[in-house]
Amino acid sequence: MCPLYVAGLIGLGDRKSVQPMAARAEGVPYDRLHHFIAAGIWDAAPLKRALLGEADRLVGGLDAVLVVDDTALPKKGDRSVGVAPQYATTLGKTANCQTLVSLTLARGEVPVAVGLALFLPETWTSDPDRMVSAGVPEGLRAARTKLEIAVAEIDRVREGGVRFGCVLADAGYGSAPFRQALSARGLSWAVGISGRNKVYPAAVTMIFPVAGRGRPRKRHVPDQVSVAAETILADMTGRSVTWRRGTKGRLRARFCALRVRMADGPTQRIGAMGNQHLPGDEVWLVREERGSGERKYYLSNLPAEATLKQLAATIKARWICEQAHQQMKEELGLDHFEGRSWTGLHRHALMTMMAYAFLQSRRLAAMGRKKKNRLPTAPALDAGDPAGHPGSPQSASSATMSAL
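and the corresponding structure tokens:
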């Protein structure tokens, strides 16, 4: 039934929910297709491993990026698993929806979705009976933030052998716990932050303050105060940077970058200033000035010798996940699933990712014929050659479809 379901997602038709897909397929009863996706007893783990292997063969490598984001599935009612009024980034407003934390592997302009995991709001995790009714696995009923889900998904993808050079995320995932979790795993990252986030100058040092009265100080304190990211860059002039060529010409904006130490270390009381975060690791602070006048801020632990163009190209590679989300919804019906269960939703999401990987393999095959097997290069983190990709797109696709 797996090939039939994937074929239904890829095939023609405006709706990609079970009933219309069964109606379009010859000799496939609706009951069988519905049982397969919603209640059938089968293990999704082999398909997940096959998807990771396919994604790595297609676009994996040290010049690939792994983009963390989330996407909303608008819903009516309150019985579908995880549905609740919550802010939907893609909609730009609060809506009644399900939120899937997504991981997208990308190289050049070719994304392949490798993870979609449901976030459960507090209205669900505080209601055990509701979770049982929706079939939420017992081990996943504890409250988890989107950041915790994302880190768990990154661990799963790495264990599956997927190769990438940098993790990217927007400001919704750019908090200190997420950055520190990535650094603890030895991963390179570039994430969005608020311009109000505090940083220290890179030259900050820890000193023993001179005590005017009372007992001598026993703890080091920074010799400089932390300031907002937007403040420390306020006097810097951005430089025009082109990071890639788009369909309408070169994509460019003005960027500036400065080495800083993020104010995300342990908290300590510092005199009249009260509790303050001590300096953390040295990182890049980057400001992007868009044509509209909007300013965006980013942090990255890329090497100190990274160029401004490398920083800009890496940061801007994040957009590709939005294309993947849109294509999976518009072409493959990611948001068309009408079931209510945890199992059904995640199986539908997995089938959608498998279908998308298959379509991307065909796209790469066509690009190979047109460009003599020259795969477009992603924003590289170094000047080295792209990592090798054993196996042709066609053979990789065949292997995955065989797993189905």
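(Above: one complete record from the training split.) Residues 193-301 form one domain.
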